[in-house]
Amino acid sequence: MKRETHETITIPPLDSLLTDEERSLVSSHATAFDVTAGTILFDSTSCKGILWIVSGVVRVYMVSDEGREITLYRLRDGDLCPLSVSCLLGSMPLKALVSAETDTRVVTISNDAFARIHERNAAVQRLMLSTMTARLSDVMWVVDQVVFRGIDRRLAEYLLSRPSELVYATHEEIAAELGTAREVVSRMLKYFEKAGLVTLSRGRVRVVDAAGLRAGRA
Amino acid sequence: MKRETHETITIPPLDSLLTDEERSLVSSHATAFDVTAGTILFDSTSCKGILWIVSGVVRVYMVSDEGREITLYRLRDGDLCPLSVSCLLGSMPLKALVSAETDTRVVTISNDAFARIHERNAAVQRLMLSTMTARLSDVMWVVDQVVFRGIDRRLAEYLLSRPSELVYATHEEIAAELGTAREVVSRMLKYFEKAGLVTLSRGRVRVVDAAGLRAGRA
């Protein structure tokens, strides 16, 4: 983790909501970090202030005692990490991990400085509430998926939601995304392959019949 | 649903955070309702203001297209309903249902009046953020349970968490609580019964070996 200290710190869209005075308060109480893909940014034991993602993508996920994972949501440019809000409140942080999926720049603002701005700035208050509401909605979506949807539909939707029909991911990574075991993903992918929906090779899944996958034709 | 209009409306603990002026603003922009057990209070299509539970217990849950349910959390005396916060923000409410489990008194405060108070009152802002954080934590707990725990452990913990060793609930109700099918609950309860952990009768489960149930001795 590399600490930056010599640049002006800007966090869109927070900056656009601040007065000049508030912006300089943030600048003098914020620290920017450039981290490489794979770095754990937050682990439920650290309260280092309010955490913002300036650029890059971070994944927020839960891990079981046995090491199984499930993704709750991802944060991107300008997003606030809701886990760090519990630091502001002086309460225990929520139990989840935050890790950088790409090279990522984050900024932490000290709790005291941020609390002073939050108290006076209605737009910042709305940003905080809307962020918490959006993340609550994200996690409710995960509950909906894991409780009400079969793993076949969830795997199909995962494959269809990728930017390209060629998905670079190991069965292990897909399992961690969906909160299931690697064996379950492997079995289901083979089933999709037999049905002519995907082709499989090491570390890659190619969707060859997106319409069939969407329609559940397996 | 019976509307009350002739009483002073008080919502602990919100009231304790308000100035006299704010308290009278709330009073003139709030409506109290007394509802009977089973009433649906919120269904994701209605934005009637910020909803508070004054007394009683309400259950917040999700329902699948096939009618299966899972409980996300319960709200009690003085709790704010986080689904109604999206109304304040002018965004779509979160997709969940809120229903009264007991006879319940709720109060709705108009969005405009509440927004005016929220903007100026730092203690109310903290209450809102801590409520949203607590509910996010609740729903993350549900994800943890449904993804990482077997239904045997979840059913055992459900039975152990009831106030008495005699649990009045149908298999259907327990299934709706845990987000599974009735048949799964019935099968697992029979398995517990064979292991001498519970006895079953119509609409009731009696825990006869709490230590065994806790230790997973089935």
Describe this protein's structure.
The structure is a homodimer of 218-residue chains. The first copy, chain A, is of the alpha+beta class and 218 residues long. Chain A is built from eight helices and eleven strands. Chain A has a four-stranded antiparallel beta sheet with strand order 1-2-8-4. In chain A, helix 6 (171-178) packs across helix 7 (182-194). The N and C termini of chain A lie far apart (45 Å). The A-B interface holds A 62, 64-66, 68, 70, 72, 82, 85-86, 88-89, 91, 94-96, 118-119, 122, 125-126, 128-130, 132-133, 135-137, 139-140, 142-144, 146-148, 179 and B 62, 64-66, 68, 70, 72, 82, 85-86, 88-89, 91, 94-96, 118-119, 122, 125-126, 128-130, 132-133, 135-137, 139-140, 142-144, 146-148, 179.
Query: Going across the major beta sheet of chain A, what is the strand order?
Result: 1-2-8-4
Task: Tell me the structural class of chain A.
Answer: alpha+beta
Number of strands of chain A: 11
Biggest sheet of chain A, in brief? 4 strands, antiparallel
| Weakly predicted, low-confidence segments of chain A | none
Oligomer: homodimer
Q: What would the principal axes of the Cα set say about the shape of chain A?
A: elongated
What would the average pLDDT of chain A be, to the nearest integer?
A: 89
Number of helices of chain A: 8
Cα-to-Cα separation, first versus last residue of chain A: 45 Å
SSE order of chain A, as H and E? EHEEEEEHEEHHHEHHEEH
Measured by residues with Cβ under 8 Å of the partner chain's Cβ, the largest interface is: A-B, 38 and 38 residues
| Helix content percent band of chain A | 25-40%
The percentage of residues in β strands of chain A lies in: 15-25%
Backbone CA Rg of chain A:
20 Å
